């Protein structure tokens, strides 16, 4: 295993704190942009830019934005997951920057999932 750098440790710390604050009430929502290689190739950077722009315009400080690697659904990229306190997570697929902006406005800000872009509500584990 490669040695961790200071930057790696800072990233781990930031992700841990973002997750803890969502659980402990510091954040009301968490947005995860899936940025594995397949996601980036499909346009995830444009999705991230749109989400960051909407967050900056909103002035909200209670929304965490994180990234993840591949979610295992390469053909459905670009994707993002919205988690709101007390609600099941929603995974959105086949996004464009305009769709991401709509999801931010309606789901993150308004509390209403955008069903036409959603793949699943909750966790997709089957057993």
Describe, in plain words, how this protein is organized in 3D.
This protein is α+β, with helices and mostly antiparallel strands and 127 residues long. It has one domain (6-121): Glutaredoxin (3-Layer(aba) Sandwich). The protein has 4 helices and 5 strands; from the N terminus they run H-E-H-H-E-E-E-H-E. It has helices at 6-24, 37-42, 44-58, 97-109, and strands at 29-34, 63-68, 80-84, 90-92, 118-121. Strands 2-1-3-4-5 form a 5-stranded mixed β-sheet, sandwiched between helices. Helix 3 (44-58) packs across helix 4. The longest helix is centred in the first third of the chain and has 19 residues, at 6-24. It is globular. The chain starts with 5 loop residues before the first helix and ends in a 6-residue tail after the last strand.
Characteristic terms for this protein:
single chain, Glutaredoxin, five-stranded mixed sheet
Query: What helical percentage do the residues reach?
Result: 40-55%
- How many domain modules? 1
Q: Uncertain segments of ≥5 residues (pLDDT<50)?
A: none
The radius of gyration is: 14 Å
Which sequence of SSEs, written as H and E, runs from N to C? HEHHEEEHE
Category by helix and strand content = alpha+beta
Q: Could you give the distance between the termini?
A: 32 Å
Mean pLDDT: 87
In CATH's first tier, which class applies? Alpha Beta
The best one-word shape is: globular
* CATH-defined superfamily: Glutaredoxin
Tally of separate helices: 4
The count of strands amounts to: 5
Widest sheet, order of strands: 2-1-3-4-5
